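REQUEST FORM: STRUCTURE PREDICTION
Request ID: SP-0412
Submitted by: Lab K.M.
Chain count: 1
Length (residues): 86
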Amino acid sequence: GREVAPCYGAVLAFERPGGGGHVGFAVGYDAANFFVLGGNQSNAVTIARIAKSRLLASRYPATYPNPRQPLPLMSAAGTIITTNEA
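STATUS: Completed
RESULT:
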């Protein structure tokens, strides 16, 4: 894919403390976190908040038109903040 600013549907790659990483689909943001839809977050398909400071890359398929939908600002109520998505 190609590098893009974080936008709705982009694949976000994050560093994980202690090594390794995590990827998920961007669905929103708040002041300090991205809201990420992932298939193995707390052993389930969930939306979790991941610190913006952990972001390594934001990618979008090169074969798809330019993304047009910005990330929506979301409420953090009821959404976990994750530090290790395993």
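NOTES: DSSP finds no helices and six strands in the chain.
Reviewed by: T.R.
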